[in-house]
Amino acid sequence: MIHVRGLTKHYSDLRRGKFVAVAGISFDAGAGQIFALLGPNGAGKTTTLRILSTVLRPTAGTVRINGYDVVSQPAEVRRQIGFMSANTAVYDRMTAWEMVEYFGRLHGIAPQRLAERMEALFDRLKMNDFRDVLGAKMSTGMKQKVSIARAIVHDPPVVILDEATVGLDVLAARALLRSVAELREQGKCVVYSTHIMREVEKLCDQVAIIHRGRILAQGTLEELRQQYHEQDFEELFFELISAHECDEADLAALR
Fold this sequence. Notes:
Layout: E1 2-13, E2 17-29, E3 33-38, H1 45-52, E4 60-65, E5 68-69, H2 74-80, E6 81-85, H3 96-106, H4 111-124, H5 140-152, E7 158-162, H6 170-185, E8 189-194, H7 197-203, E9 206-211, E10 214-219, H8 221-228, H9 233-254
Parallel strand pairs: 3-8, 3-9, 6-7, 7-8
Antiparallel strand pairs: 1-2, 1-4, 4-5, 9-10
């Protein structure tokens, strides 16, 4: 479904010169799988997902989604994906139903099929009790559900979620995680960006730990635990990040 090879993204910075946001990362994610990009804030997760979603162009490397290249075939890629982030906006003057319907029409779904699809989505995501609520009056959890529904209304094979539970209370976060698990059960390929270890442990089949634009380790949770001889995944994560920062500090001192 998703094949990333040597993905690199540079930015120009007036004070620092060239800033490397993503430094030659590679990974694969398949159907019926939740692939986690786990890392602290500023690790390069969002930049990576924006490239996958055709919002940003890579500096180097290749990304193919369901056979389509994100640079040369962006329109085809957009048909294959649903994208949602914690910053996805919800229109204040549209109801939940109107918003999801609007995005379904943008995707060219026929009216009858769209109505059937929306009824199924609103039932599955438990959105019927606020289907007529305006965006301005929705809670954060309601807005996140609307964002998921509009991201998957066209039934894409690939779903990209960037820090989807940020700002949610415990109950809303649990409901959203259940929805993500259901996407896997439907055979979707889900790329899930987070910095919350508990979410990774509950949800994800494959994990890539990313820090300062580089993937430090990747594999299943069990593979990583065996490789680094650490059963506590949070401790494993912190040890990897700390070791990487120490290495960078040593290199800087030698310059």
